[in-house]
Amino acid sequence: MASPIFTTERLIVRPLLQADLPWFVELEGDPEVMRYTDRPAQTPEQSTFALLELAGRRELDGQLCLWAVVNREGEGLGTAAVYRNDDQQWEMGYKFHRYCWGQGLASELAQALVSYLQQPLKGQTLHAYAFSDNVASCRILEKCGFALVREWFNPDYQLLDRHYHLTFSE
Fold first, then answer.
1. What is the pLDDT of residues 42-60, one digit of tens each?
2. CB–CB of 165/91 below 8 Å?
3. Quick check: pTM over 0.90?
4. 93: buried, middle or exposed (CB in 10 Å: 19+, 13-18, 0-12)?
5. Mean pLDDT across the stretch 142-160?
6. How far lies 2's CA from each of 7, 20, 49, 67, 91, in Å?
7. Would the N or C end of the chain have less CB density within 10 A of its end CB?
């Protein structure tokens, strides 16, 4: 198993491995999981290509870091992402398998991710986006200290989109 990037009481965040392919394909291919992301459910081929491109990345280098989120037994639960978006802003995101929803795992992950990012992003702003219909993620971001920047109608998804940010002190 790859060494952890960080851990929480119940979670281990580590680089994605090729061995993660079965649960990663299932996660990325679930339309319910993907409905509040900026992409539709992925085919197994798309997910396989993505995992092979991203496997093993640890450090923030201005590129997408997509990390595995696993439980203490090593079972794949979801992913955490940190990357520079199209506007060259640092952005974070996460997603979990449906069977993980409602257990506080996303809150636990988001709080730990923000904590982990404080040092490398000192003096910078971290951004996150959530559709207003995704009430749980909006609450999680607010609980982590993110402030709502703006809300607008996103015609691509026919939903209200929200932009949040959190500035880390020097």
1. 999 999 988 888 887 777 7
2. no
3. yes
4. buried
5. 94
6. 13, 11, 20, 11, 24
7. C
